[in-house]
Each structure stands twice: as C-alpha cells, then as structure tokens.
Protein 1
Amino acid sequence: MLIFTSCGDLLNELPENFQAESSVDYSNTDDMILPLIGAYAQFYTRGWEDIPVISVRGDDVNAGGLGDQQDFTEEDLFNYNKDFWMFNSVWQNLYKDILETHSAEEQIEKYREAAVDGAEMADQYIAETATLRAFMLFQLTRVWGPIFITSSSVPTDILNAGLSTKDEVMQYISDEMDVAIAVLPDKRPNQREDIPGGVTKYTALAMKALANLELKNYQEVANATSQIISSGLFSLEPDFYELFKIPGKLNNENLLELQFSDFGQGAGEIMSHLFAFYGPQGWGPVVTGADGGWGFYEPSLKWIKFMLDREETVRLETSVLFTNDGIAEIKKDAAYSTLPGWISNITPSGDTIKNYARALFASGKHYLPTTELTPGRTGYGNNKNFTCIRYAEVLLMHAEALTRGATGTGMTADEAVNEVRIRAGLGTLSGVTADQVMDEKLAELGMEWGTRFYDMVRLEKYDELSYDGRTFTADKIFLPYPQNQVDLIPLLGE
C-alpha cells in the first residue's frame, strides 16, 4: 500500500491515453470519445489519500488519532511534515491525472485534423477535459498556493513552467471555463446519454463560481450561479440522508461526482473508492460480514455542538455516526447534558456504531448502510459515489455573493438560503446576512472537500480554526511542497 512510483519514474511515464499513432484511425470520429472516457476514468479513480489531505484542516473535522499515519494527525494540528508520503502522493496523483487530460485533448485534436466533420464534438470533448483539469488545479492551488499550470501531456514540461500564484490559477480556471461553457451540453449531468453524469455547461459554471469565490470576485460568482439557478434544471434531493447513499448517485442535485459501480453483481469486477478511510473501526452491521472502516476521519466535537445549538436533526443525523463514548463525551459539557432522544449509536438504517480507540465519531456522509450493499459485496461503501459539487453549494455561493454586494437573478439570498434550510427541516430566514450564509454553509457542507477551512482562510477568520488546542496562523494556509518534488524541481525550493 505504501509503495509509490517515484517522481523520476512519473516524469518518464507515458500518459495512459497514449496509443501508437500507427494503430489509430483518426478519421473514424466514432472513436473520438475513447480518449475522453479514458480521462474520466483517471479522474474518477482518485487515490484514497487525496481527499483527506485536501479536507482535514477545518474546524468541522478531525483526523482520527492513535493511527499509523501520525503525520496526517499532525496536518490537522497545522504541523506539516514536508516528507510525509501522503503529501507527495496527492501532488503526484493530481498532476498525473492533469497530464492525462492533456493527453486526451491531444488525441481528440488528431481526430479533428483527420476527420471530415466532428469539429463541434471535438470542441465539446476538449471542454470536458478542461473542466476536469480545472477541478484538479483548483484543489492543488488551494492546498499548495503557487503551482504549475500545465500546457501539454509531456511530463517534463512541468520542469520548464514557471509557478503561478493561487490568484493567477483561479483566474486561469475562470477564463478556461468561459471557453468551456460556450460548447458544453446545456443539461444536467444525469441527462447525458453518451456519458451519464459527465461534465456539462453547468459543471463549468460551478467551477467558474468556485474560482471567483476564492478571488473574492463576488459579482462573477453571482453571474455564474444565477445562470445555474435560472436554468431550472437543478433541485435539491428531498431526502438529505439518502443524498449521500445509493439513491444519491446521479442525483438532480449533483453537478459533478466521482462515479463507481459494482455493476449490480455480488462478485467479480468492481470500481470503487476506498471509503473505509472514513468509516468506524468498530461496528455491528445489519448485514453480517460487512467490513468496517479505518477510523481516520472524525466530525469535530465543535461542529457537533454547533449543530446541536441550531437544533439540527436531519443534517446532524446524516453527517455523524455516534459511538456511545462520543455521546458520553458530548454530555460532559453541562450545556449538552441532555441530548435529543434520536441521538444514538444506531444509525437510521440499523447499523450499530461501537466504541473504537481511534475516534469518538465517524462521518455519516461517507457511510453507506450495509442494507444498501449489493448482496455479496462486503467492502465499506462499495458502489457509493463521491460527490464533488452539488446544487446546495451553488445556492449558498449565490447567497453569499449577494450578501457581499453582488447582484444576481434566479433567486434572492433569502430564497437560496431558505431552500437549503427547508430541506433540513429548519425555519426560514428573512434579511439574511453574510454571517448567516457562512453558518448555513458550515451546517450544509461539513466534512465535504475542506470547504469550511478554505472559507475561513478566504475570510481571514483564523480564530475559528484555532480550536481544541490548535493555533492557526496565516503561515499555515498552504502545505509545504513535498520534499521529493523540491528535490526534483528546484524552483519549488526557491
């Protein structure tokens, strides 16, 4: 598990989409989709270490302790080890897949050049790869700050590229999405028949909004979110609990998701993400023999108390798997000595979460009830998708932009926030403020892609990140470049 391709080997590898040109008939436009499918396949198969490294530093989530990945725990405490293998692996994984998107584009261009027609389809396919690449660049620059913007599939080109600042990368993403938006399908991802769940115009608009949010260009955020909302194509899944389970796959709420499948078979081929990282080590599953998790990803006690203060039920019950030790820990605080009766170590689906040494709670958003496993499958979370961007986040970005002075169409800030609150079983607000929007984002998007951490960094609310003995300062915003990469690319060391 801990054996990885060295940086030098990575730079010498051919992209997986590479084919000997003599074996490809580029005049056959029916095959133009093949390199695109290859790019999606690479994008979906994220390393299990990628998302935790990106997302663990907020005050909504803690790294599970007492594990063999002490440097992951230290990352959560803002003590960064440049030699930590996970940092290096995430850098490599993302850049490798970015190069794959370039390789796909280069193959598609060959079809365009050789075919009599197909130029319009080539434009769309290239826009799709650009949108996938934008998501990966977005994550890289939020984690490391200045990074390389690649221009081809040639790995050594990274060595010749200069570093671009985070703001420059975000502006690059915004500009790239302008080009993509014009040629991508005008539909929901789940309405696509050629590649169900594939990128559409609205995925690119969401990426444009996310990039401009980081730039604090709130009018551009509102411009993008207004188009998504005004399309009338998207809606919130009524059942928040099932949104993160099998019924949530290719949901009308999802603008981008990592897709996996066991092909409806209890044995044999399977494409899956390693959700075990997030799951509880100890449990009593309804389905006998269903595997537990590793216990490395824990909703924070601070976040749970925040949700209790708001009298949250739907989102709290969905987002947290409680152990009895965790319930007891909450009750140690006199203000929470009496908890709602629904709080239990038994999930709504009947799985029992037992005490385990590594954590007091586990993430419910990364949990799949064992009753939803395909009979015969036992892996934790098998057949579950991993959501990247959903409509609720679009609504809350829209509301934040409007409360920070932007103008938009489709919904008012009150309407956008209240749509999310109503789904959560909460009352409506009027005259919503930016602070209320941020509270709603914390409640809605807790444990998802580090959204809370990057919001607090953007707003310079460092005190929120200094909790439970942690002290966050501005010099901790970015992770150090992995030492393996510094050795390979001296510019990083400078």
Protein 2
Amino acid sequence: MEASRTTKGKKVVGAKWVFRNKLDKDGKVVRNKARLVAKGYSQQEGIDYTKTFASIARLETIHILLSFAAYNNMKLYQMDVKSIFLNGLIQDEVYVEQPPRFESETLTQHAFKLNKALYGLKQASKAWYGKLSSFILENGFEHGMVDTTLFPKNYDSQFLLVQVYVDDIIFGATNEMLYEDFSKLMQTEFEMSMMGELKFFLGLQIKQTPQGIYIHQTKYVKN
C-alpha cells in the first residue's frame, strides 16, 4: 500500500478481518490465520473492474494427472504459495479503507491506494494468475492445450508437470533432480511452503505407494 491519501472524490472499498483455522487431511488444526480482505462485493463490473478470472483446475485434469503419474511411476509433490494475492500487481486505481482497529486518529478521512492486489478484490485472482503464469512461462514451461492451469516442460527424454489451483501447486517429474530444481526456482520468486508428497487436494485424500496411487474421501464423508 502507498501512504495514506484523502478519499475526497475517490471510491473507497471497505476492508475487514477474516479469522479461520487451517486443517490438515485428518481435520486437525495446523495453523490459525488472520487475513485482511477487501469487501469486493461492493465493486461494480464495468466501473471498478472489467473482468475477473480464477486459476481453478478442472477436476478431470486432476484425475488424469493422478492416472498419468501412477502409470509412469512418478511421485507427486505439493507446495503452497503464502499470501498469493499480495504478489499480484494491479493496473487499476483502487483505494481501500483503513483496516478496522488500525485507523489513524488524526487522518480519519484518508485511505490506502493499493499497489498490489488484496484478498477479496475482483481483480485479485486475475492479477495473481498473470504474475504466476508469466513467471512459469518465462522459465521454459508451456500452457496446457485444454487446461491452462497445467504447465508441462520437456527436458529431452525427461519432463516435468505443474498443476496450479489458486495458491496450491502440485508437480511431478520423471527425474528427482527436476523436483529440486523446480522447488528452488519457485522459492527465488515467491514465499513458499513445501508440503512434501501430495496427500490432500481438492477434497481428495491421496496415498502414493510403489503399487499405485490410491484416492479416497474419508474426511469428506465424515464431514
């Protein structure tokens, strides 16, 4: 955010705090999260933004990726991008009100101008996907022909597959060195949480063994 400026003559988007618990595949609390979000529902299409976009993977693509990994004896791994929407640069002029309980006592009529996206904004998903996809494509990957959230990369006789779902990234390769290279590449640009082998994704619990990949939805059924 830039320094505070007067809101006179400017439309200001509201802001609020959201608190939630992040759960693991067994339903246990692993992290408490507090996040400042914009009240994007107050933005009007055609006035405050032109179009929205969300980098959501097709479930069919995930099924095919799991089958492909099992057939080629590939191990799938998962990483999480921290504060994803704060990485996306926005082109529009957007102002948000001062965060609740952190308002200035003297500059009560001031707001913040955003340089980067904020959770809740209609422009946030598009800005984040633009940042991420540009970085991946600049490093030799290609867009999937059917699902644009899938990014393959060929290395002569080896290859690496990357699947993006908002802030979750799963990837698999035919060579273990490619795993490490991709992990290091992503960490040079983004703040990442390495989550190890893929175990839980889009409601699917996943177990990878030398005999194959098994999926179930025990947690979903219990809920």
Protein 3
Amino acid sequence: MHRPLPVAITGIGVISPYGRGIAALLDGLAACESAIEPLSICPSPLHVVPVVGQVLDPLDVPAPPGRWLSRTDRLAVIAATEAAQALPPSPDARRDCAVVVATTVAGLSDIDSAAVLDPTTYYHIVGLGPASTYPVSRVAETVAASLALGGPTLGVSVACASGAMAIALAAGMIADGRVSMAIAGGSDALCPFTMAGFNALQALDFEPCRPFCQSRAGLNLGEAAAMVLLEGEARARARGATILARLSGWAFTNDAFHTTAPDEEGRGIAASMVQAMRAAGVDRGRIGYLNAHGTGTRLNDVAELRAYEQVFAGTGARVPVSSTKSYIGHTLGAAGAIEAVITLLSLRTGTLFPTLRLADPIDTTSVELLRGGTLRTAMDAAMSVSAGFGGSNTSLVLEHAGEGGRS
C-alpha cells in the first residue's frame, strides 16, 4: 500500500453547542458536561420537541459581496476563521490554500415553509439568494470567499463520514503535492427536514442519547462546524509553525450493504481502520485512544463494536473507546471533523473524555468503553472513526509530531 507523506495539523477551529472556539469545546468536554437540551432555535417539525445539541451564540458573520449566507455557511466561516489564524501572514499562503468542506444539508437548514408551499411566489419576493446556498459545494466556496483563500475548493457529502473524509481528502492533496496548505473540515446546521427524516427512520432518542449502552434508544441531532489547517510536515517545520499533531494515516471503505443499516459485522469499518494504521505505519498496539462514531442507535453500536473486536483482538491491553456524540449530539457532516479535533485534543492534553450516561455498557473484550470521569493518560497515537448511511467509512490516525512521537 502507498504510504502517504506525513501531514501536519497546524491550526484548528470550532463552533459547537458549547460556544465559539476550541477553548469552549475543551472546557465543556473536560467538565463532562452535556450540551444536549430541548430544541429552541427553531420550531420543532415533530409531534414533540426533540433534544439536540444547538448553537445559541449569535452567528454574526459578514457576507462576502453578492453572497447569501445560510446557517451552515456561518458556522463554517466561524470555525475556519479560527483555524486560519495559523496561516502564514504572506498573501501567497492564502492565494494557494485549498478549502475542502463537508456538509449534508448545506443551506437546506434555512429553507422557508413558504418556499415549499409556493416556490414561485417565494423566490419572486425574496430572490434566489437562499437557493444559491443549497448545493453542498457552496459551503467550501463561501469559506474560500470569506477568508480570501485562492486554492481549489471541494464540497464533500457522503453522509455522516463526510467531515472525516474531507480532512482525509485534503491531506491526500497535500501528500501528493497538489496543494501546499488546506483548510478542511465540516459544517452542518440543525435542519427541520433532517429531524423529520431521522424521526421517520425511528432513529431519534427523545432523551439525551446513551451510546454503547444496553438501553440505548437512538441518536440526538446536533449542529457544529470544525476545521483544521493542514500542510506538509516538512513545510510546517521549515516555517517554524506549531505542529499540533501529525495526521499520519487515513483510509476510506464502503460496506456495500444497505442504504441506512451498517454491515452487521462491522467489516467495512474494520477494514478502514486497518488500512489507516497500515498507511500510518502505526501498529494497533500503539493506539492509545479511539474516538468512536458511536451514535447510540441499536444497529450502529453493535456493528461498530464488532469492528473494534476484529481489529484489536489479541493486543493485550484493552483500547480506550468513547463516543463524544453523548456531549453535543450527532452533527452529521461536521461529526467526523469535530471528532478528529477532539481526538487531537485528547492526544495533546493526555485527557480521555468518557461516554456520558453509559450506565450499562455492551459487553466487549478487546476495547474499554470509557465512562465516569475523565481519564489522564500518556499516548503517542490515537484514532478517530466515522461511518455513514450508504456504508461510507473513514478512519484517521493522529500522532504526536515531535521527535520520539512528541509535539
């Protein structure tokens, strides 16, 4: 297998239900504080009010000339602006920087019921500005326009693996020498249509979710955006950048199984993990933490744990695993990106964040489902795993970036 050149993560940015910025996210996680609460930012499209992870901060983002910004756009620009603080100050850096952003709903989160009932009248009165935000490519284009980034832009939409895949695709572009730097990640706002769709699938839990618990009943939706600044490790060291972590391996697979259900044995997830570790040159025994997809649905959690058992069986020590969707909900296109950022924070701080509300864990033998309070531990490598409808799987391997594996 082709082993990609190491890619450095030199900037991170996020807006989450804890508020703006990495510090707010880290504070919420460290306190083991759930940000899941009754929906209040928009009317519920369901017969009851669901609990969600919602951003209550004002999203005051100036629109680039001639652009209408959706809520998803605004979240993305806020997160990307924080990550872009690590860009070199030269105009060339911005002119050459690529933008790869994942989303599943884009501007559909803002669609007005009037547009559904009478689109001709609605768009005649309002104009076509809202409609311009519906394509999934629009979010990446908006980030690029807002931050004056002149490299290639790419929109990614492969369901709930999208955020991780956007980071991996951008890393591949850098490793192949196609671009020198990239802002990559994901953004999704809460969307009434998405809520109704997951409810129709009977996938929602109307109480705060309980991933990996025997009594789990479904997922909670959330909204967020998370972005990373990626560049070649050699370039980052040459310019004296602070390297937050090394993204040393990544891989994609597909279950080729079902539109919404995972492969019951988790074979696709397992394959993506094995391929990512092989690409990174990281033995499975070096993985000190695994941030799971962990939605809290009946089917996903079992399939996912079966994948972990396949990968880590016989390694001796049980690998610590947790689902941080129990803190902020399932943020769809942003999930893989914000979970990659959380994995990076765990790696750098030596802090593992347990799954909340995990009272009665599913039985496992090769991994340790974290619960209770935070755990302090030293580790050289960690992994983030994402999966999505249609069978898409993405695994990312992160390492400390300094000599001997330390940054």
